[in-house]
Every structure is written in C-alpha cells, then in structure tokens.
Amino acid sequence: MDIDVRVIPQLLSMILQLISTLILFLVLKHFLHEPVSKFMNERKNKIQSDIDNAKALKEEAIELKSEYEAKISEAKAEGQEIIESARKRGEEIKEDIINEAKVEADGIIDRARKEIDREKEKALDEIKLQAGDMALLIASKVIDEELDVNLQQDLINKFIDEVGTDKWQN
C-alpha cells in the first residue's frame, strides 16, 4: 500500500475550492444578504420604535403622576379649607348661642328685678296701710278721744310719708 502524502496542496484543487467558495458567497449574498439585512433593519427599527414608545409612555406616566399628585395636594388643601371653614362656622354658632343665652339671661334677670321691685312696692304699700291702721289705733288709745276725719286723714298721710324714712325708723 502506497500512501501518498502531500504537504503542498494541489493548485488546481485549491483554485476550484476558491472559485466554488466565491460563487457560493455571491449567490448567498445575492439571495440572502438583502433579505437578512432588510429583516435586521426592520427589527432594529421596531426595537428603536418600541424604546421610543416606552420612553414616551414613561414620560406620560411621570406627567400623569405629577398631575395626580397635584390633584391630591389640591384635594387635601380643599379638605383642610372645608374643615377650617366648618370649625369657624362651629365657633360662630357657639358664640351666637352664648350671646343669645346671655341676652335671654339678662332679660330674665331684668324681668325678675322688675317683678321684685313691683312686689317690694306692693309690700311697702301694704305695710304702709297696716302701719297707718296700727298708728291710728295706737293714737286713739293714747289720746283716748275721738279724732275727727280730717285730722285722722292728715295723721295717716303724714305717717305713711314717714314710713321707710330715717325719721320713722328712729
């Protein structure tokens, strides 16, 4: 058996190999390079579009978030205003009730004072009448004589005028 070992390849075989590789390259380039490049560019554009859409959505979400936070802040402020307004209204109602109660109490006190004054005057008049009768009785017993009507009336009036004064009490 003879084995032929060649270290240098045959030139013809090598040239054919190169030509077939070149033809294969050109055929693949012609049929595959264009569609694959187109597909890769479309894929690249789609990915870039998706990234841009994601950025736009993110910006929109950030904008919406800030709008919602502003609305929440406004709602909290409005709630505080409502609470403050209700508190002030409650204070006003409280003050009105207190003032009405004071006015009513003052009216009751005034009516009571007037009633007391009327009762006092009535009691003083009654005391004057009774004192006059008693004074007349005492005077008639002391004098032991009959007084005429005019003198009796003058004594009663004088006594009534002096009742309640310092002269009468001394």
Tell me what you see in this structure:
This protein has 170 residues and is mainly α. It has one domain (11-169). It has three helices and no strands. It has helices spanning 11-143, 149-162, 166-169. Helix 1 (11-143) packs antiparallel against helix 2 (149-162).
Strand segment count? 0
Poorly predicted parts:
none
Query: What do the pLDDT scores average to?
Result: 84
Instruction: State the distance separating the first and last CA atoms.
Output: 178 Å
Q: How many separate domains?
A: 1
Number of separate helices: 3
Name the structural class. Answer: mainly alpha
Radius of gyration: 63 Å
Order of helices and strands: HHH
Helical amount: over 70%
Shape: rod-shaped
Largest sheet descriptor: none
Relative strand content: under 5%
InterPro entries: ATP_synth_B-like_membr_sf (IPR028987), ATP_synth_b/b'su_bac/chlpt (IPR002146), ATP_synth_F0_bsu_bac (IPR005864), ATP_synthase_B_chain (IPR050059)
Keywords: ATP synthesis, Cell membrane, CF(0), Coiled coil, Hydrogen ion transport, Ion transport, Membrane, Transmembrane, Transmembrane helix, Transport
Membrane topology: Single-pass membrane protein
Organism: Anaerosalibacter bizertensis
